[in-house]
Write a structure and sequence with these properties.
About 55% of the residues lie in helices and about 0% in strands. The mean pLDDT is about 95. It is an all-alpha fold and about 80 residues long. It is globular, with a radius of gyration of 11 Å.
Length: about 80
Amino acid sequence: MFEQLKEIIVNYVEVEADNITPDSRFMEDLGFTSFDFMSMLGELEDELDVEIDPTKAADIRTVQEAADYLEALKDE
């Protein structure tokens, strides 16, 4: 899931995939805006066929947190 997430992240911000770590924070480290983040979540919902809870999404800060959350959604 982490690798798949990295491939999607590079479509939204000017960051090399190799520079994205599990601890990378979307806003502070990767330069996401709120709009970028919400757009990415929409793409993830379509690609992974899951429904992301906006309240839980608001608590996601790092790439690993997002990967863990998406993995849990896929397992439901």
